[in-house]
Write a structure and sequence with these properties.
Structural class: alpha/beta
Keywords: Amino-acid biosynthesis, Cytoplasm, Diaminopimelate biosynthesis, Lysine biosynthesis, NAD, NADP, Oxidoreductase
Pathway: Amino-acid biosynthesis; L-lysine biosynthesis via DAP pathway; (S)-tetrahydrodipicolinate from L-aspartate: step 4/4
Catalytic activity: (S)-2,3,4,5-tetrahydrodipicolinate + NADP(+) + H2O = (2S,4S)-4-hydroxy-2,3,4,5-tetrahydrodipicolinate + NADPH + H(+); (S)-2,3,4,5-tetrahydrodipicolinate + NAD(+) + H2O = (2S,4S)-4-hydroxy-2,3,4,5-tetrahydrodipicolinate + NADH + H(+)
Number of helices: 6
EC number: 1.17.1.8
CATH architecture of the largest domain: 3-Layer(aba) Sandwich
GO biological process, one term: diaminopimelate biosynthetic process
Bound molecules: NADPH dihydro-nicotinamide-adenine-dinucleotide phosphate, ligand LZUJQKHR
Radius of gyration: 19 Å
Shape: globular
Strand content: 25-35%
């Protein structure tokens, strides 16, 4: 029999949490040992024997959950949004501290992925690859109307990557003659405009528009069902223990990073 990885799911009653519980239960090498909801709190996860916890909670609690998991000696796979450079840096610093006290080769790992869907990861990669060749770039994310945060974590990550590539290539600000009505031009993420659509019937979708004189490149991905995120989530659950420290983005587990 293959060695089982014991998994806890935080936010288990939510849309992604419930889908993750089903995927873990269906995986022959994983055992679901805890379903943690908002009424339970994260404190008891260590006592469940979980080796890895998957966090699909909400932006307001996910960072605190990760710190509690690290204090309990549990690896973390994080899909919840709301992460910033500062909160990621605090987790990296916490990891360095706990791992200094752990035996060689037994360090804790945290994988934070703004999007576990292969189509989304590839769209972000393609957009970053293309960004240096275009004068203009804008991001449109489209989601179900029950989503609490905007713009999406994926769109922020996409825009930040485009901005980094543009800066590296020495591209200046994008052409934009707007003088009035800035509220209609979307959020500014590192100088890249990001537009958020909330529409009944949608799940999770993103378009990156790249423009030059006389031409346009559109990169689009669609997650029609939350099962699309599960291969990425399960990959991270299986890999996190062999990646001590902080990993941001599923691309690094797919050898795309
Ligand atoms: N990385 C990725 O690939 C993806 C990321 N996401 C992200 O995942 C997150 C969850 O999305 P979704 O499932 O749609 O949202 P839901 O609102 O359906 O689920 C969130 C769940 O977390 C629970 N929760 C809140 N606080 C706690 C807590 N302290 N401990 C345990 N559980 C808690 C909520 O319970 P209650 O309702 O009782 O408060 C709820 O059941 C979002 O940030 C979303 O953006 C979504 C899809 C893919
Ligand atoms: O809330 C969602 O649904 C999603 N959230 C993530 C995000 O904000 O990027 C990932 C995906 O877009 C679905």
């Amino acid at each position: 029999m293959t060695e089982q990885i014991r998994v806890a799911v935080l936010g288990a009653a939510g849309r992604m949490g419930a889908t993750t519980c089903a995927a873990v239960e269906a995986a022959p090498d994983l055992t679901l040992v805890a379903r943690v909801d908002s009424s339970d709190g994260v404190a008891g996860v260590g006592a469940t024997g979980a080796q890895v916890a998957v966090d699909f909670t909400v932006p307001s609690v996910t960072e605190a959950n990760v710190h509690a998991l690290l204090d309990a000696g549990v690896h973390a796979v994080v899909g919840a949004t709301g992460w910033t450079d500062a909160s990621r840096a605090r987790v990296a610093e916490h990891l360095a501290r706990v791992n200094a006290d752990r035996p060689q080769g037994r360090g804790l790992g945290v994988v934070i992925a703004p999007n576990f869907g292969l189509s989304a990861v590839l769209a972000m990669q393609f957009a970053a690859r293309a960004a240096r060749y275009f004068e203009s770039a804008e991001v449109i994310e489209l989601h179900h109307p029950t989503k609490v945060d905007a713009p999406s974590g994926t769109a922020r990550h996409t825009a930040a990557a485009i901005a980094a590539v543009r800066a590296d290539a020495g591209l200046g600000p994008m052409p934009d003659a707007t003088e009035t009505g800035w509220e209609a031009r979307g959020a500014d993420v590192d100088g890249v405009r990001v537009h958020a659509v909330r529409l009944r019937g949608l799940v999770a979708h993103e378009e990156v528009l790249l423009g030059n004189p006389g031409e346009q490149l559109v990169i689009r991905q669609d997650s029609f069902d939350r099962v699309s995120f599960m291969p990425g989530v399960l990959l991270a659950v299986r890999e996190v223990a062999s990646r001590p420290g902080l990993t941001v983005g599923l691309e690094h587990l797919l050898d795309l990073g």
